[in-house]
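Work Package 4 report. The design task specified in the project plan requires that, given a folded chain encoded as structure tokens, an amino acid be chosen for each position. We show below one input record used in the internal validation round.
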């Protein structure tokens, strides 16, 4: 028996992996002939963006792994450029450029004047500093001279010392004469000015306080932070630990995107334990790690419009950092580090799925294009590790189905019937007819799962339950009535049926065949497999590994005609 936390992990992985990568739209399938940029091995992953952007982002160095943070920015080469070391601070919060109120340890944008507000206006000294040591000395000197809160900032003009955290320009201007008099005693001839925070500015606070640790104007570079100290520091963010650092995108004046920036192998270490159970055989884990690694390289800049490569949701790969990382996973990822799966010298789009129920599919039967390395293969290995072979049953009401169709641009009345129009050679559903009695909508391939919902159609390998249809032996033709069909009797003679409900002789006597009546209020599906059934089967790889298959043999089985090469080849 697996431990409970492993069961939960596995369930999470299945729910995400069954359609995850598993539910990519046809338009985003990587072109196998296109040149891919894999000149570096840094992966940028969107943790929060778009409607999920954050007003305030909290970070904490994992106990025993680091001693503080450093702030800076990420250059065009994706490497971190440090600007300011925040030593000894293991918890910090990043906020945007507006006034923020502190209430119950949470930061709320657009705070008003009061004792718990971090204001967006400051008094700035017109002094430049060569290094952090000189800057810190100046911050300390200004605070001693003025008895006003002072802190470091990085602006388009370089390092600056700032005083105060005012909610309005007027409030800052009221204090300006006093501040000027006191600072002049330390820096004769000094010039002071009131500054507001720019539209791309960030403030770094000691978490749960108004204490400003650092300000980053963001006029030329957006803020980046990373933990420092220790052999390999890890950082907590929203319940998960991560290697590497974090970049911040400008979503609005009051919210920001949060992007994880990590080395490729560290990224893969944050994917593998969430896609597979950490107790699985090593060769299965290695095979999946190689797929995850190749997928990240091939899909570089997939979300370029948001400023990162891949997301953490169903569109890409599950990525949650090092929270579940074990030494076994580390060893498996390290074993394939620097490797990539290629076809004709180009990295492949190494898509994978949870299970397929016995056959993988050809890409053109799921998405649009024919991809030479995504060919259908029989998969008897899933049953070796998954006793029910991914069996499932789901249902959807007529009202729900009607609403989904209309929401996706298919104008149709209340649905009265659903029928399978065509099957693939592997036995999956290629197209589905849905009718309101007057109009019929045909959904095909992965689009039917996108419209109906991947929580209803867990795969394309399904059949309708109690739909009043009978499948013939060729598996591709269906009839709703037995009348007029020919049958072969025990004497080898062919007889034409005249009734839709003929009688047959069974071991217990004579029984009447009845195709059944369709329930038009609820449509039920019975299927096998979780996901799109393209590429590697996670559960199948587990069965193969149990039989002694190596990770490279597993890869070559599921991806036709591929080669495993080095990233620098």
């Amino acid at each position: 028996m697996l431990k409970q936390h492993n069961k939960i992990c596995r369930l999470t992985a299945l729910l995400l992996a069954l359609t995850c990568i598993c539910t990519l739209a046809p338009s985003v399938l990587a072109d196998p002939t296109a040149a891919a940029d894999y000149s570096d091995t840094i992966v940028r992953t969107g943790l929060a963006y778009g409607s999920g952007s954050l007003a305030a982002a909290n970070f904490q160095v994992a106990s025993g792994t680091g001693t503080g943070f450093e702030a800076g920015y990420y250059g065009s080469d994706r490497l971190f450029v440090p600007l300011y070391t925040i030593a000894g601070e293991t918890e910090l919060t990043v906020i945007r450029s507006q006034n923020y109120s502190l209430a119950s340890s949470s930061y709320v944008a657009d705070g008003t004047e009061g004792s718990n507000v971090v204001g967006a206006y400051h008094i700035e000294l017109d002094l430049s500093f060569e290094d952090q040591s000189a800057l810190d000395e100046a911050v300390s000197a200004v605070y001693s001279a003025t008895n006003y809160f002072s802190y470091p900032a990085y602006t388009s003009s370089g390092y600056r010392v700032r005083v105060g955290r005012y909610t309005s320009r007027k409030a800052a201007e009221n204090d300006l004469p006093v501040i000027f008099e006191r600072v002049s005693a330390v820096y004769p001839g000094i010039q002071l000015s009131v500054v507001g925070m720019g539209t791309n500015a960030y403030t770094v606070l000691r978490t749960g306080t108004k204490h400003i640790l650092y300000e980053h104007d963001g006029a030329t570079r957006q803020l980046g932070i990373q933990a420092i100290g220790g052999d390999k520091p890890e950082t907590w963010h929203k319940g998960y630990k991560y290697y590497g650092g974090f970049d911040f995108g400008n979503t609005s004046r009051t919210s920001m995107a949060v992007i994880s920036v990590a080395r490729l192998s560290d990224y893969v270490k944050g994917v593998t334990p969430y896609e597979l159970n950490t107790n699985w055989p090593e060769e299965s884990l290695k095979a999946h790690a190689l797929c995850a690694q190749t997928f990240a390289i091939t899909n570089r800049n997939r979300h370029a419009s948001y400023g990162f490569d891949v997301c953490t949701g169903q569109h890409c790969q599950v990525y949650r950092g090092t929270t579940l990382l074990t030494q076994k996973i580390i060893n498996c990822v390290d074993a394939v580090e620097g490797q990539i799966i290629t076809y004709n010298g180009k990295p492949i789009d190494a898509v994978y799925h949870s299970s397929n129920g016995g056959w993988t599919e050809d890409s053109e039967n799921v998405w649009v294009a024919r991809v030479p390395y995504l060919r259908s293969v029989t998969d008897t290995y899933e049953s070796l590790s998954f006793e029910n072979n991914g069996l499932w049953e789901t249902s959807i009401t007529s009202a729900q189905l009607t609403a989904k169709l209309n929401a996706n641009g298919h104008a149709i009345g209340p649905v009265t019937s659903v029928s399978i129009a065509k099957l693939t050679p592997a036995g999956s559903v290629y197209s589905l007819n849905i009718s309101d009695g007057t109009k019929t909508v045909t959904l095909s391939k992965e689009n039917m799962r996108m419209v109906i919902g991947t929580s209803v159609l867990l795969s394309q390998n399904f059949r309708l339950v109690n739909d009043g249809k009978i499948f013939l032996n060729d598996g591709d033709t269906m009839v709703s009535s037995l009348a007029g069909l020919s049958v072969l009797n025990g004497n080898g003679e062919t007889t034409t049926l005249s009734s839709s409900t003929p009688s047959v002789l069974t071991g217990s006597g004579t029984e009447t065949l009845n195709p059944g009546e369709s329930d038009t209020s609820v449509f039920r599906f019975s299927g096998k497999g979780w996901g799109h059934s393209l590429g590697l089967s996670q559960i199948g790889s587990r069965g193969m590994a149990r039989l002694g298959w190596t990770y490279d043999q597993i890869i070559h089985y599921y991806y036709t005609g591929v080669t495993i090469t080095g990233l620098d080849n």
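The chain has ten helices and 37 strands. Validation will be extended to a larger panel in the next phase.
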